[in-house]
Amino acid sequence: MDGKNRADIKKGIAVMVVKKEHQRTGELTKGVVKNILTNSKTHPHGIKVRLESGVVGRVKQILT
After folding, report:
1. Contact predicate 16/5, CB 8 Å
2. Residue 3 forms beta bridges with which residues?
């Protein structure tokens, strides 16, 4: 699943995010969602979240 729909993302799930400084390279960071920062229902580049590690990025993949 991609991370473009806010309804698909819940606190505590594992995701792969791209940080702002890695948007050009597409380097992904794995983590667990602590907070959802995007208020809109969808976002074309992925929902912005804060991971438990403190990293902020846009969700590119939801892990199961």
Report:
1. no
2. none
- CATH code: domain of residue 40: 2.30.30
Arithmetic mean of pLDDT over the chain: 96
**Is 1 domain-assigned?**
no
- Whether this prediction's pTM lies above 0.85 is answered by yes
Q: What is the pLDDT of residues 6-20, one digit of tens each?
A: 999 999 999 999 999
pLDDT value at 64 more than 90: no
Query: Of 19, 24, 27, nearest to 54 (Cα)?
Result: 19
